[in-house]
Amino acid sequence: MKKYPSLKPGIWGAVIGVAAISVVGFSTFGWTLGSTADRMATERVQTAVVGVLAPICVEKFQHQADASTKLIEFNKVSSWNGRSAIEKGGWATMPGTDTPNSAVSSACAERLGSLL
Fold first, then answer.
1. Rounded (to 5) percent helix, strand, coil in the chain
2. N or C: which end of the chain has fewer CB within 10 A?
């Protein structure tokens, strides 16, 4: 380093510049890591799927025999038991699947709870 005395400040300037650009890029410019983008995409897909399937669940509930009486009974139970009742009733089990979707049953229970 004694041959090139101006090289050391240049290297430190580059290191500090890279760190500063990284901090500004991730905090201000909206850069994300690939894993963060994957997680965000998965959450958006799950939200979209629940948004589409929850009205189908409500519709299936409303098309059962004596639906108005069952809706009154449904609203008497707690939210946890309501979700369980929807899963047991099969309204949150969509065609092509064997098991109910817990997120769909929760959204369905919320929508049914707000019908009265």
1. 70, 0, 30
2. N
94: left (phi over 0), alpha (psi -120 to 50) or beta: beta
* pLDDT tens column, 94-110: 888 899 989 999 999 99
What token pair was written down for 24?
Answer: 């500004």
Q: Which two tokens mark 65? A: 């025999």
First vs last C-alpha separation in the chain:
80
Per-residue model confidence (pLDDT) at position 12? 93
Q: Using the structure block, give the residue that is written with the tokens 């047991």.
A: 88
pLDDT band at 79 (very low <50, low <70, confident <90, very high): low
